[in-house]
Amino acid sequence: MERIFATYLIETPYEVEQAAAVLAGEQSSGTFVSVPGETEELRARFAARVEHIELLDEVPTPSMPGDFLPGKIYKQAKVIVSWSVENFEYNIPALISTLQGNLYELRQFTGLKLDDFELPNSYREHFRGPKFGLRGTKELAGVGPKRPMVGTIIKPSVGLTPDYTADLVRTLAEAGIDFIKDDELLTSSANSPFAERVEKVMRVINEHADKTGKKIMYAFNITGDCRTMQTNYETVVNAGGTCAMVSVNSVGWAATKQICNWGGLSIHGHRNGWGMLNRHPFLGINFPAYNKIWRLAGVDQMHVNGIKNKFWESDDSVVRSIKSCHKPFLNSESVLPVVSSGQWGGQAFETYERTKSTDLLYMAGGGIMAHPSGPVGGVSALRQAWKAAVSGMTLEQAAQEYKEFGESVLKFGRKEVNAQ
Amino acid sequence: MERIFATYLIETPYEVEQAAAVLAGEQSSGTFVSVPGETEELRARFAARVEHIELLDEVPTPSMPGDFLPGKIYKQAKVIVSWSVENFEYNIPALISTLQGNLYELRQFTGLKLDDFELPNSYREHFRGPKFGLRGTKELAGVGPKRPMVGTIIKPSVGLTPDYTADLVRTLAEAGIDFIKDDELLTSSANSPFAERVEKVMRVINEHADKTGKKIMYAFNITGDCRTMQTNYETVVNAGGTCAMVSVNSVGWAATKQICNWGGLSIHGHRNGWGMLNRHPFLGINFPAYNKIWRLAGVDQMHVNGIKNKFWESDDSVVRSIKSCHKPFLNSESVLPVVSSGQWGGQAFETYERTKSTDLLYMAGGGIMAHPSGPVGGVSALRQAWKAAVSGMTLEQAAQEYKEFGESVLKFGRKEVNAQ
């Protein structure tokens, strides 16, 4: 029978073998004493198995509260556990409850993080994955393989009127932007009702498309309860939009899956709240596992932070995330990695150097909107930076070559230039 | 204009005022530089405000990776931040993205935990809260105010057939149980398809109700994608069931809300995965905030762990959770706290002592099923323990007075007896 394999990083004051056995027991038989009805045959068929243990490190203090054994050190290890598909069939929320359920509460661990998981081939028949994904979304936005999509976020996050937003969209359209999104803090607010914003923004986008043949992708933030999301989704479709944004953690898996099933829009997955799930090195979930869960829902675009971002995340972690979006999974479309957070053209060089890929949505908020020559200069600078990075130029060469990029280096780039 | 207030526990190497201002900025204007369009007027109307700061402690090492300032100590504080309701209207996923969104990624913090939040009165018109809640669920199960509902979990979690499960239900019914639930690891499995399990279990429960007038509440685990949950919900309703269980973290807020809206079943909210969100003292979310989010969805019953549980959580934290379930919120029904995890009758005494309440669903898995006299003895022992606790007896007195409870003390209670 096919099995599902999950890799965990664990920390424990006990013997690692013993702690891993507790994890497997809790997540399959699930009680603290032997009970009638638990036969050897049942155990063989349904029990989770510890498949592999690799010791990593030993530390004197625990990462989190848990059992304390006097004089003990805390062992960190990588552990692989497997379950039969018979346990959950093809029910992803049930899989989530198994891979990342009660096990985080076990006192035998002072650290536990789900790193990645692998599903057997039969899942291919049950999950389409992203309807558009990486290739489909770039095609929908009319962006070829040789460069990333260039995008921006409407800022300030809340407070602008639909008219002001539509005016900004016009300016950005004329500057050659590929993608614009609502901020995740804005859904429908007192002075920017959702339907009115869609109507006014799409009028600009449709007119621009009629004139130029290029339809800018705008990710309208439809995040809400099921009814609101359905209404808002239909509003976007009827206005000729191509994309909707969902704050996936806030909405949850089941409703996000439902939205992706409809298949009429590329779904922009915003992972706000991710820090709660990932920030501690020994608690929560790492991106490769997280990303697969949302690919199973059918999310087409997924946020991954960016090189030298304004948040805490390391560049290595960002690069790993970009690569997991690109990596094949269940023969479905790859996910478009959304590079965002404190970005401007300056990070294009290292991003390209480390990923050798233009299969990105490269987003700058303030980096475009606060460019010295305004949003038009901001978009130009980003396009220039990527052109230069792909052609093998350095940041300094590009700053000499391109006026708008040069201006952005002066405004945003002091740290990066000095560091080189 | 009405405002929403959120309380955070924070840790930072910066001045607390400065770090709190970054949090408020990120969660309302949302960019790292001033941008055109961000006027003073907009800021006054839509910007988040830091309302209150209370220094708690200073520590030499950070709780989590973040900015490092040489020679700095890390300050821990309680901070209250507020937002205008105009920012999100009555959209709870948008509220979640604001209260627990990107702020967890800010490098200015080495710890951040949402502790609680308060909503203005106008939310009462938009959210019914739990349809059944604490009182309605106890009534539905035919349990009066003088004692808790007594429940158990079918164990082992996975592997039993519907026939075996139905036989166990018959035994437990005859023993006088009020409530039984599927384990969170079981939805529909190869040898226990959901519909067959409902049919066979409900036949036993309905027959028992016909004979005795008491309809045992069985929480069938309907967790899954939207379509599966709807089908499974209808299966339970059509079979005469009164309850469905949802793993709320795995399913997510929007789909859970949808299910609660239907209003035909008491919804048992299982919080598996909670450890990811709460285990670290300075990361994630505390129960008072978490519980309110799910009360807004309409969940009727919510897991809270138990005194001397098998997990890591402290008794103080458990007691705080029970009290937050009981506490009024938006004039809606309170939530029934589900006390569970390594429970047997022995903890009834301290649970009652510390909460002075019988408004609980008190659950034992192994504590009932592995009782020396079998499940019948297990149920009797729990009922006896609560009767004794409410009447003011000590555990020792109860062990002398009641045969089955005495047996459970011998099997499960060594630690507790010695400790007294």
TrEMBL record, chains A, B:
<dbReference type="InterPro" id="IPR000685">
    <property type="entry name" value="RuBisCO_lsu_C"/>
</dbReference>
<dbReference type="InterPro" id="IPR036422">
    <property type="entry name" value="RuBisCO_lsu_N_sf"/>
</dbReference>
<dbReference type="InterPro" id="IPR017443">
    <property type="entry name" value="RuBisCO_lsu_fd_N"/>
</dbReference>
<dbReference type="InterPro" id="IPR036376">
    <property type="entry name" value="RuBisCO_lsu_C_sf"/>
</dbReference>
<feature type="domain" description="Ribulose bisphosphate carboxylase large subunit C-terminal">
    <location>
        <begin position="147"/>
        <end position="407"/>
    </location>
</feature>
<dbReference type="Pfam" id="PF00016">
    <property type="entry name" value="RuBisCO_large"/>
</dbReference>
<keyword id="KW-0479">Metal-binding</keyword>
<comment type="similarity">
    <text>Belongs to the RuBisCO large chain family.</text>
</comment>
<keyword id="KW-0460">Magnesium</keyword>
<dbReference type="InterPro" id="IPR033966">
    <property type="entry name" value="RuBisCO"/>
</dbReference>
<protein>
    <submittedName>
        <fullName>Ribulose-bisphosphate carboxylase large subunit family protein</fullName>
    </submittedName>
</protein>
<dbReference type="InterPro" id="IPR020878">
    <property type="entry name" value="RuBisCo_large_chain_AS"/>
</dbReference>
<dbReference type="Pfam" id="PF02788">
    <property type="entry name" value="RuBisCO_large_N"/>
</dbReference>
<feature type="domain" description="Ribulose bisphosphate carboxylase large subunit ferrodoxin-like N-terminal">
    <location>
        <begin position="7"/>
        <end position="123"/>
    </location>
</feature>
